[in-house]
Design goal:
- By secondary structure, the protein is mainly beta.
- 13% of the residues lie in helices and 37% in strands.
- It has one domain (22-171).
- The strands form three sheets. The chain has a seven-stranded mixed β-sheet with strand order 3-4-11-10-9-8-12.
- A hairpin with a 5-residue loop joins strand 9 and strand 10.
- It is globular.
Length: 180
């Protein structure tokens, strides 16, 4: 999905081209008799990366909708979303964890200025075959990303490496979730 820019009440445009889909490649090293594999990672972004739930008192001029839902454009989420392309490309070097449902999470602990915060990046991943993509392609969708409330529990439910997630996606299997 290519998100259209948001225009605020003062007429200022907030472009969202940094959240347009993109593709990059990851090399999975040979392991356990499996050869080295180059994986095409196709990345998409959900609207929750730059919007929040509509709340009483939100400025109606900041409404943002697609064909499924209407939310409020969130300027803080928008600013942090500018780092999501880099975070997506770095998942192989970052610690990932299980989150609710079929999602996984990566926590980023600093902002662009080096200030400490807990920024949760929630994503899912699946094999993406067909249309000339080959056998080694996955679709990674960053569903949501936002600063976590320090008063709420950590969303992580057990660690998992990104290469393990890639392997499961390519095989069409599901990693075993940790017991609660």
């Amino acid at each position: 999905m290519r998100w259209r820019p948001h225009t605020d009440k003062d007429g200022k445009q907030h472009p969202l081209y940094h959240l347009h889909p993109f593709r990059y490649e990851v090399v999975m090293p040979a392991k356990d008799g499996r050869p080295e594999t180059v994986v095409a990672v196709h990345v998409g972004f959900g609207m929750h990366c730059f919007t929040k739930k509509v709340e009483k008192g939100d400025d109606p001029s900041n409404r943002y909708a697609d064909d499924r839902e209407e939310r409020t454009f969130d300027f803080e989420r928008y600013e942090h979303s500018k780092r999501l392309r880099t975070i997506a490309r770095e998942l192989q070097q970052r610690q990932c964890a299980f989150a609710k449902n079929e999602n996984f999470v990566c926590l980023d602990l600093t902002d662009a200025n080096g200030e400490r915060l807990r920024y949760g990046v929630f994503f899912n991943i699946k094999k993406w075959a067909g249309q000339g993509r080959g056998d080694n392609a996955v679709l990674l969708v960053i569903q949501s990303a936002y600063c976590l409330d320090p008063k709420k529990p950590d969303p992580c439910r057990g660690k998992i490496r990104f290469n393990v997630l890639l392997g499961h996606a390519l095989r069409g299997t599901t990693p075993t979730r940790p017991k609660r």
